[in-house]
Amino acid sequence: KAGVTQTPRYLIKTRGQQVTLSCSPISGHRSVSWYQQTPGQGLQFLFEYFSETQRNKGNFPGRFSGRQFSNSRSEMNVSTLELGDSALYLCASSLGQGLRYTFGSGTRLTVV
Amino acid sequence: DQQVKQNSPSLSVQEGRISILNCDYTNSMFDYFLWYKKYPAEGPTFLISISSIKDKNEDGRFTVFLNKSAKHLSLHIVPSQPGDSAVYFCAASARGNSGYALNFGKGTSLLVTP
Fold first, then answer.
1. Of A31, A44, A101, the CB nearest to B46
2. B107: nearest CB among A33, A42, A105
3. Cβ neighbours of residue B5 closer than 8 Å, sequence gap 6 or more
């Protein structure tokens, strides 16, 4: 059974650019969440999608957005990148009924 | 504002002994708690969870205790093994109608020495 797949694994972008990260959940999982991990703040919730609808959103600026497709795959987009956006971005999926999320290995974003 | 706090950034324990990782929370609406383990270059892996209607949940070598009045939970690992060396995250959630969001602590790095 394939796990949660995130692409790309590593990314280097310049300040002001935008970036799109991709997440393919475990087959059958309809809930996808995104988290940002930084050394100073730990893991912080970005947003959660279920059946293409955003159900919950964390306390991040509007530069952070996401979407979910009909096949449950999800993308998150960060526009006008700032140095502080450098982080590990983690995607997690679940069947939708519980909180036992399965995480992907993450995308390491470096903004220079 | 950090609603879930893990006040010990690191912990070192000898193999075979008990590891106790602690977590405090401030939001009284939290009703579901989880522990995740994370190895370098991997995503967090679910370890064990507990609902607020219980005060203890056990799974093999791992036991989670919840003290609601103190807003405190702990993870006990007995006996500790070198393979348990990882970063452990405590997480909490308040289930609601608007979907689920996990509030994580900043993690405790556990080192189990032979």
1. A101
2. A42
3. B23, B24, B25, B26, B105, B106
